[in-house]
Design a protein that fits this description.
This protein has 2 domains: 114 residues, no CATH class; 108 residues, no CATH class. Strands 1-2 form a two-stranded antiparallel ribbon. It is mainly alpha-helical. The protein is built from 6 helices and 2 strands.
Length: 222
């Protein structure tokens, strides 16, 4: 549990730092800021400074509260004790992603020369790779992991799907890392391939379920 408490402390420090940075950025950002970039890293949407500095901190707090209460709402709540450090790491990775995204987009709006078309795919790639590393450690639950009718109906399907899903997420993450190096016209195809690699876990869970159901022991875990 000591590891979980350390991760909780880091998460709270990140949220506190985000609130502090939001106050600072409010003082220095222009009234209108870029809120979205296209696949080539070019701005294509703008919004108010107030929305920019409030949205991410509030989102981070909402995610933190959600993660705090999900185990209490889950019918499989007892399983959380078996993967709590992993559960905390997933929370940290998501909160950390929002923190870095907030800082980078704010700096770009302050005219810092940051190649956001390369940075964002890199961040997404790292996010999926880390998720993939810890995917196999997630125990059956209703809120975190690859949740399909087939994984939720069988512990064996859950375990095999998450073992496969970990590899699929890492492959998708590596593809995201490579996206900035594709020719501009190939960006969409690289993005689609990365998403398909990740979503293949859903299809895999179905075929694992069917193979178990047809196995010699029949509906042993279903």
């Amino acid at each position: 549990m000591k590891k979980s408490k350390v991760i909780d402390l880091i998460i709270k420090l990140l949220m506190l730092a985000t609130v502090g940075l939001a106050y600072y950025f409010y003082q220095v950002l222009p009234d209108e800021v870029i809120t979205h970039w296209n696949g080539a890293g070019q701005p294509d949407d703008w919004g108010s400074k107030m929305f920019h500095i409030l949205f991410t901190p509030l989102l981070m707090i909402a995610v933190w509260i959600l993660f705090m209460y999900l185990p209490k709402l889950d019918p499989k709540r007892r399983n959380y004790d078996d993967f709590m450090p992993t559960y905390k790491i997933i929370q940290l990775v998501i909160i950390g992603f929002f923190f870095v995204l907030f800082v980078i987009t704010s700096l770009v709006n302050m005219d810092y020369n940051i190649p956001i078309g390369m940075v964002i795919p890199f961040m997404v790639g790292i996010l999926f790779i880390i998720m993939g590393v810890y995917m196999k450690d997630i125990k059956p639950n209703w809120f975190v992991g690859i949740r399909t009718p087939w994984t939720l109906s069988s512990d064996e399907v859950w375990q095999r799907t998450h073992k496969y899903g970990g590899k699929a997420f890492m492959i998708g993450g590596v593809m995201f890392l490579a996206i900035p190096f594709f020719p501009p016209g190939m960006f969409v195809y690289a993005f689609i391939l990365a998403i398909l690699a990740i979503l293949s876990s859903l299809v895999y869970s179905y075929f694992v379920y069917k193979s178990i159901k047809k196995g010699p022991e029949g509906d042993r875990d279903l």
